[in-house]
Amino acid sequence: MILKKYEDFNFYKRNIETFDKEIYKKVEKIIEDVKSNGDDAIYRYSQQFDGVKIKKYNLRVSEEEIEKSLKETEKNQKEILNLFLEAAKNIEEFHSKQKVEGYSFTKDNAIMGMKIAPLEKVLTYVPGGKAFYPSTAIMNIIPAKVARVKEIIMTTPPSEDGGVKNHLAIALAHKLNVSKIYKVGGAQAIAGFTFGTETLPNVSKIVGPGNIYVATAKRIVSGTVGIDSIAGPSEVITFADETANPDWVAIDLCAQAEHTGDNTVILISTSLEFIKKVETSLEKIIKKLSRSDLIKKSLQSFAMAVLVENYEQGFEIINKIAPEHVEVMINLDNSIIIEKIYNAGAIFIGDYTPVALGDYFAGPNHVIPTNGTAIFSSPLGVYDFIKRSSFLLASKEYIDIHAEKILKLSNSEELDAHGLSVTMRKNKKN
Q1: CA distance 151 to 385
Q2: Which entry of 174, 235, 324, 327 is annotated as an active-site residue?
Q3: Which stretches of 77-207 are DSSP H helices?
Q4: d(CA 292, CA 288)
Q5: Which of 40, 128, 210, 393 is deepest in the core (most CB within 10 A)?
Q6: Burial 365-391 (b: 16+ CB within 10 A, else e)
């Protein structure tokens, strides 16, 4: 790992150019094609990008296909399915605490307040093949369920014969009571569910990870449809002092580095001796891991260690970077740690709290802001699947009390019709 010091505080610069302009142009064409030509365009791009070898297939997963996926999963992945369903219960318990209620109050004989309502239709996008992470499917579906979204839809790329590519994905969706499941992937799926086609319904919001084409498509349609975020490469900062276990810190750094090979991995420590111990542990541990080559590449290209003089300097760097994940293993009271870190997607505190607990099982959502966006955004949650509407029910008494004030305010902006719409009501005889 490259060694930095606090004095090199500006070593980290946020990459705000998060998309490829050439890909952007290609995805724009795909979106316009799907918008204009509907299912025909979906079929063409499924052949081109997903390798589907037939011209047309059933875009929606049938009851027979669901039944087959359940049988296949029960036969070959029963234990994994049950473990994911156990994790889903933990995730549901955690997210149930995020429910919010509306409110109302009366003032000057007018009733006003805020109504909370779930979104009507939400799409969960689930990548296919090696990029399929069942844990991410659960993290997207469960908060929508807790929010009482009326219709939760899932889509995932098809197999070459237009069938189901990943039986576990279909089985999980069915077990979690997803309303409808489709076999469409890529930018064409994002376009199809944004604008609707003969077969695909248009939705209120699209959530879930995908490749750069999916991410770019979400960027383009954002505003026409809601999206969760534009996810960049994953990030972790581990803040540890000499009281931490260097082997545990090393394996946590490897866990972050094994994603895609371009993940940000930063170790902050108050001890140079401890940093050296972690580097020794890394050399020993990497050899034992199945993705050793990918991890080496990631650590060589994107990892660094930062030596700080005290805890305050460490917290300052964390809050500047605003990482997706931060692990803290230092000799400091937990409540102080939570108070000091205010720019981070998820905070993992203590020697026995690796990121993997949150990624898979404990309950917090692992769909977390990346690329420094934790300075203004939050992990995916129930609040992402609701909308708020204010309401106001005024009386003649309220108009009588406040009409002249509203008239003066509207006149100050030269919008006299606004003022007149109020004073005409005041002057009405009972």
Answers
A1: 11
A2: 324
A3: 78-96, 134-146, 167-175, 186-195
A4: 7
A5: 210
A6: bbbbbbbbbbeeeebbbbbbbbeeeee
Q: pLDDT per residue over 83-140, tens digit each? A: 999 999 999 999 999 999 999 999 999 999 999 999 999 999 998 866 677 888 999 9
Burial class (CB in 10 A: 0-12, 13-18, 19+), 346: buried
Beta-carbon count within 10 A of 104 CB? 12
Q: What per-residue confidence (pLDDT) applies to 177?
A: 94
Residue tagged active-site, from 325, 339, 366, 404? 325
Q: Where do we find the tokens 């004030």?
A: 405
Among the listed residues 354, 348, 342, the one whose alpha carbon sits nearest the alpha carbon of residue 318: 342
Q: Is 325 a catalytic residue?
A: yes
Tell whether the model's pLDDT for residue 294 goes beyond 60.
yes
- Edge-to-edge, what's the strand order for the sheet holding 110-118? 103-107, 110-118, 386-393
- The residues, ordered by sequence, that sit 6+ positions from 366 with a Cβ below 8 Å of its Cβ are 135, 136, 139, 346, 358, 359, 360, 379
- Mean pLDDT score of the chain, rounded to an integer? 92
Position 11 scores a pLDDT of 66
Amino acid present at 222 = S
pTM of structure: 0.90
Question: Token pair for residue 277?
Answer: 């111990």
